[in-house]
Structures are given as structure tokens and as C-alpha cells.
Design brief:
It is a single chain. By secondary structure, the protein is mostly helical. The longest helix is centred in the middle third of the chain and has 39 residues. It is globular and about 90 Å long.
Length: about 525
């Protein structure tokens, strides 16, 4: 495939992404499901080249920015509060699932060496950050469950990659040391965190000095790859490094970015992450043909691998349920013994947490990186792909229904101390206090009467609204509906003035931006 054909393929995939997302929206399907299915179908269209993925390149291109985006927006205080549960999922659940899958695989295929079984377990054990994001964006979860799933997806790849490397090394050399594996994991994690902290600190110090919104946004794009590549070049955890950088940058971006930079940067990142996530699922689906061809065709897969693959998929799901429910039972036991610090999530929350275990690009990329002469490589490839398809299609499509069925409620301890309307009222009062001070001259004469009146009314309305949201809901919606209608009328008139030559391009863009801000403000207030 030459460069022009590759570019044409990328453009075709972009068109497919738009089409599949539109279909998913119309049918009410998760976009990840439509993209994965569509990619698998496109892979077998006549005339299309067989897509061969470089696993290392796939991880380098897609993983750092997607991890950065997840870490950037995660609630850091809640992450710290629930870190024990996150570590339990990101490390404990990965190790437990690896062991369960290895035992089941060796029981089903006794000829498969233990190292190959362990490698398979390490490949399929960590749920994928990209898959989790793609599904969780469409569902509403209590804060604690959302933080547990987001935090797990950020850190568990590091655990799975370390286990995989040691399993492959054991398969090649025939030697394995648990102590050495634990020491290596600690070194990779701590070293990666140090590198990530250094890159994050450098960004916080240098980005404001760029003094240009596009350069500042570009620097935020560079940060995750710089962190990941620096850590990996030092044989440390690129995953931990990138997450650490994302946490630091996300925490300080409120003081580093101006409002203009943040608006532009948020829009840029939103589109980029949307396209990257979509390309990931499309690439996974499109790689099906290459995997099938590599292992000898559909007939061989159906005849010899279907039973063991389905059994491993079942064991994988069961292992996560055992770990989640077992951990929750342990917390309840500790509370019964007098240790009240930790709170169980309960059977309903545990069901949702256990069911949200989708696999994705990391599983496929790591499976493709298995050495050619490694025992059981064909079976590992097929199983990895089947696990991705199975978890995304089965769990991804049904997760919303499971959440609705469980009727989850936000625990009182996880609720913020102030509601949105109470926070708005507090802001309005703070704004009024400043305006009252500066609205009068030294003699006490009001010199900004309209501004003072505006903020007095705003503070009064916000204070009256706080705690009475349901009572004012209809009136509020009608108010902002009228604002949106006025914005639409203004936009039509603005375009008419431009089309008739009454205003120039600069005036068009300046006034259009004002209308956009007003529309976004009304939509946000209405929601």
C-alpha cells in the first residue's frame, strides 16, 4: 500500500466513522458497538487491503492522549478518597483475573504451557480505558462508581503489561520469579510517576510563558506523548507517567489557561478524542480479517477454538464478579468487626461495577505483540479478539439497562455539600459584593447604576432559586427557550447582513462568537 492509498484509506475510515456514529445514534446503540461491528464488516469487503497493525505504534499513537484526557477531567479529590478501591481493581483484580484465566486455559488445553496461559490472562485481564470511556459517557452513575471505573481504567494497563512481559519472558527462558516481578512493578510504577510529575511540572511552568493560545493548546497535546515516550525510553511505565502528567495538568489548567484558551482547547481536545476513540474501535474491527487469516481461517477457528474461547470469556466475566463481590463482602466483614472507615458499595453497585469490564485496543495491541514463535500464539490472538468483541457487544450494549435495573442512588457521603443552584447563588452574591464596592465613587454616589441593578437582580434571583429548582423548572425552561429563539433570530440577521455586504468578515466572526457564547450559556443553564 503506497502513501496515497493509505491517505485514501484514512479518509474512507473517517467517512465510515461519521456514517456509523449516525446509524448508532438513530438506532440508540453505543457508538463503540457500531464502530466495532462496522469495522469487522468492512474488513471483508472485496478490494480493501488487509489491515496489519503495528502494536507498538498503535499504543504510542492512541494510548497517551486518551489517558491524558481521562486524567485531565477526573475529580482528583475523589480519586484520592477512593484510591484503595481503585488499586484493588487496577492491581488486585488484574492479578486475580490473570490467575483465573490461566487456570481455565490450562485446564481446557493441557498442552498449552503455563507461561502461555499466564500471558493470555495478562492480555485479557485489564479492562480498557478507551472502551470504558466510550460506554460511560452514555450512562449516569453515582460518583463513587464512576471514579472507581475511571481510576481503574487509567492504572490497570500498567499491571497487565508488567504481568504480560514476565509471562513472555518465562515462556522464552523458562524462569519466573514472583519477587523479581513485584520489584519490577514497583520500579516501573514509581519511576513512571516521577517522569510524569516532571513533565507535568514543566508544562505548568512553561505553558503560561508561551503567551499564545495555539501554542498553549499545542503544548497540552505534546505533554502526554512526551511523558509516555520519556518513560518508555527509560524502561519505566509510560501508562503511569502519562496519567501522572494528566492529573497535574488537569489540576493546574484552571490557573494556566485563560478562558479563551480553555474554550478553544476544550473544543480541540473534544474533537480529537472523539476521532481517536472512533478510529480505535474501527481499527479493532478492521483487524479481524488479519487475525483470522493469520490463524488459518474461519473454519479452523470455529472447529477448534470456539469452545475454549467462550469458556475463557465466561471465566473472565466470572472472575471480575468474584473479585468485586468478594472485596465488598470483606469490607462488610471489617465493618462488622468495628472497622468503620470503609463503606461497601452494596450488591447493586457491585453488579454494575462487575459488569463494566469492557476490553479494547490495549488487549489487541498486546496480543499482536506476542512473539511469532511463542507457544499458543494463534489461540491467544483469537481469544483476545473474541474477548474484545464479546465484552463490548454484550456488556457495552447492556450496561445502560443494567444500571437502570439496579436503580442506583448517590450515597449521602458522596454528595457535594452545595447544589449547582446554591453554588450559582454564592457566586452571584460574591459578584454583587464586588460591584457594590466599585459602583460608587468616593462620595458614595452611584456611578454604575445599571450594572449595580443587574447584579442585585441576579443575586436575588439566584438566592430565590436555590433549593426551589422543581418549582421554577417550567418557567426557567421557557425563559431560556426564548433566549435561544432570540439567538437564532440574531444569527439569521447577522448572516443576512454579511451576505448583502453590509458587514465584513471580522464583524461577522466577532458578533457570531458573542452569539455562540450566549447560546452555550443558555443551553448549559437549561440543562
Amino acid at each position: 500500500m503506497n502513501a496515497l492509498q493509505m491517505f485514501e484509506l484514512v479518509i474512507g475510515m473517517l467517512l465510515a466513522i461519521i456514517l456509523l456514529h449516525f446509524i448508532a445514534h438513530k438506532l440508540g446503540l453505543p457508538p463503540a458497538v457500531a464502530l466495532l461491528t462496522g469495522g469487522a464488516l468492512f474488513a471483508f469487503l472485496p478490494g480493501l487491503p488487509v489491515l496489519s497493525l503495528d502494536p507498538e505504534l498503535v499504543l504510542v499513537i492512541f494510548l497517551p492522549p486518551l489517558l491524558m484526557d481521562g486524567a485531565w477531567f477526573i475529580a482528583l479529590r475523589h480519586l484520592q478518597r477512593h484510591m484503595l478501591g481503585i488499586v484493588g481493581l487496577a492491581v488486585g483484580a488484574v492479578i486475580f483475573t490473570t490467575a483465573v484465566v490461566a487456570l481455565v486455559a490450562h485446564w481446557l488445553i493441557p498442552a498449552l504451557p503455563w507461561a502461555a496461559c499466564a500471558a493470555l490472562g495478562a492480555i485479557v485481564s485489564p479492562p480498557d480505558a478507551i472502551s470504558a470511556r466510550a460506554v460511560l459517557q452514555r450512562v449516569k452513575l453515582p460518583r463513587r462508581l464512576a471514579i472507581l471505573l475511571e481510576g481503574e481504567s487509567l492504572f490497570n494497563d500498567a499491571s497487565g503489561l508488567v504481568l504480560f512481559r514476565f509471562a513472555v519472558a518465562a515462556g522464552v527462558t523458562g524462569a519466573f520469579s514472583m519477587v523479581e516481578a513485584m520489584e519490577s512493578f514497583a520500579l516501573l510504577a514509581i519511576g513512571g510517576a516521577v517522569v510524569g510529575a516532571a513533565v507535568g511540572a514543566a508544562w505548568v511552568l512553561l505553558a503560561p510563558r508561551l503567551d499564545d493560545k495555539y501554542l498553549m493548546i499545542a503544548s497540552s497535546l505534546l505533554a502526554p506523548w512526551a511523558s509516555y515516550l520519556l518513560a518508555e525510553s527509560g524502561h519505566l511505565s509510560g501508562v503511569i507517567a502519562t496519567v501522572t502528567t494528566g492529573l497535574i495538568c488537569g489540576w493546574y489548567q484552571h490557573v494556566v489557561f485563560t478562558a479563551t484558551v480553555r474554550m478553544n482547547g476544550t473544543a480541540f481536545w473534544a474533537v480529537m478524542i472523539f476521532l481517536m476513540e472512533a478510529f480505535v474501535f474501527l481499527l479493532i474491527g478492521s483487524s479481524l480479517r488479519g487475525v483470522i487469516d493469520r490463524v488459518g481461517g474461519f473454519d479452523l477457528v470455529l472447529q477448534e477454538m470456539t469452545g475454549p474461547v467462550l469458556a475463557i470469556l465466561g471465566a473472565l466475566i466470572a472472575a471480575r464478579f468474584l473479585w468485586v463481590f468478594g472485596s465488598d463482602a470483606l469490607i462488610m466483614l471489617l465493618r462488622a468487626m468495628g472497622l468503620k472507615r470503609y463503606h461497601p458499595i452494596g450488591p447493586r453497585g457491585a453488579t454494575v461495577l462487575a459488569w463494566a469490564g469492557m476490553r479494547g485496543v490495549v488487549t489487541l495491541a498486546v496480543a499482536l505483540s506476542v512473539p511469532e514463535d511463542f507457544p499458543g500464539r494463534d489461540f491467544i490472538l483469537v481469544t483476545a479478539f473474541a474477548v474484545i468483541i464479546g465484552t463490548v457487544l454484550i456488556q457495552g450494549m447492556s450496561l445502560g439497562a443494567v444500571i437502570r435495573l439496579m436503580r442506583l442512588e448517590e450515597p449521602e457521603a458522596d454528595r457535594p455539600r452545595m447544589t449547582m443552584s446554591e453554588a450559582e447563588a454564592a457566586m452571584a452574591r460574591a459578584q454583587l459584593k464586588v460591584v457594590e464596592v466599585h459602583a460608587r465613587d468616593a462620595a458614595g454616589t452611584v456611578i454604575h447604576p445599571r450594572l449595580l441593578d443587574r447584579y442585585q437582580r441576579q443575586a436575588s434571583i439566584a438566592t430565590s432559586y436555590a433549593g426551589q429548582e422543581a418549582q421554577f423548572a417550567d418557567q426557567l425552561h421557557a425563559h431560556f427557550d426564548l433566549i435561544l429563539k432570540a439567538v437564532a433570530a440574531g444569527r439569521r440577521e447577522l448572516l443576512r447582513l454579511h451576505r448583502t455586504g453590509d458587514i465584513d468578515e471580522d464583524t461577522l466572526h466577532e458578533l457570531e462568537r458573542d452569539l455562540d457564547l450566549e447560546e452555550l450559556s443558555a443551553l448549559a443553564a437549561k440543562s
